[in-house]
Amino acid sequence: MLGLDAAGKTTILYKLKLGQSVTTIPTVGFNVETVTYKNVKFNVWDVGGQDKIRPLWRHYYTGTQGLIFVVDCADRDRIDEARQELHRIINDREMRDAIILIFANKQDLPDAMKPHEIQEKLGLTRIRDRNWLLGRHFPLRRLQPSRKRMGMTSGL
Questions:
Q1: The pTM is what?
Q2: Is 50 one of the catalytic residues?
């Protein structure tokens, strides 16, 4: 799981793992958890997104079957930076076989970009050599408790 710092990667990881929100701090290094979804277990590596850490991302690519790239939909100032990082990742030879889930996070915030705008700004339609999906994050605080995890897993 990659994305710029403060995109919400660690929060998403622990909502997937535990089904509830936990207090997080900026990730320096990584968190790794095994998540079970529909009787399938998979390991999720949540790697810090600060600009000084990003050159280390490539060391986590070997053997990757899928990429969850988290985007802060309310961070219009850094959407171009997110696009550059996404394309840098998917153009790496180690990632050529990975399926891609773009997780459009924080859509409940004021002035957040809608999924079609995220698709355009990230240049997703230009990705033609592999499967990708733009997963929508439903505002968790507005969902019934029994549906909160469903909003998180809609893209899985």
A1: 0.89
A2: yes
